[in-house]
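Query form — protein Cellulose biosynthesis protein BcsS

QUESTION: What is the three-dimensional structure of this chain?
INPUT:
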Amino acid sequence: MTAACVGVAALLTMAPPAKAADPAPARNTEVVAPVVQRDWTITISPYLWAASLNGDASVFGIRTHVDVPFRDTLENLDLGVMGNVEISRGAFGAYVNGEYVDVSNDARIGPFNIGVGMKSYLVSAGAFYRVYQSELGGNTVFGAPRVFALEPTVGARWTRLTGSLRLGGLHASDSESWLDPFVGARIHLDLTDRWNLFMEGDVGGFGAGSRLSLNGQALLGYRTTLLGYKSIIRAGYRVLHQDYREGGFQWKVTQHGPIVGASIEF
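ANSWER: The structure tokens for Cellulose biosynthesis protein BcsS are given below.
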């Protein structure tokens, strides 16, 4: 949801033939600096998830079918912040992913002004370990070997939804939050020296928070530099399904849509 690029090719020029008695001509070779392996790596990934919503929800004791395309969410969006921070060393790493979306809509029915708002918070934290890695031959533009890698992951996802209703001078709000443990896996596949495919999926809930949660995304990335740092520009698709029920509150909704962003390594 990397450091400055160092892939400069070596240039070799051959001098014209010389007489046998002359010393051998010198070769002018530009040397590529070796990649420095650091102990810790921090990767910051801001992104935008253009999610549509489909399913069933019950708020204020009123049950309704949810069918909200992204264009409606964007039209009523007051604020949206999304990003991921990952820290890794060797085969081990940990991450925190956060999303905050605030949408509202005002309408007028007769003499009354009606306002409806919703704030959603999604915070995920987890750890992963690279259990398998296979080199594919050649290097990336950052000088590291091209690889296929598999990383199991475990963590938890906290969700909070707050709905508000304003009718004339009356105001009411309701909120619900829950915590879902999850297990899953991540896959890295270097397609070329620049192109990379990242996929991840997890399943959670298990009745501890929601009855079931399913999350998955696939991102195609392009290696480049941003602000002088090694970076990957990514685009893909993400799906998140949650089935949570508590008293009169229900959230059995699937969020899905394209996602774009960038990962910058420090």
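ADDITIONAL NOTE: The chain has one domain: 55-77+99-265.
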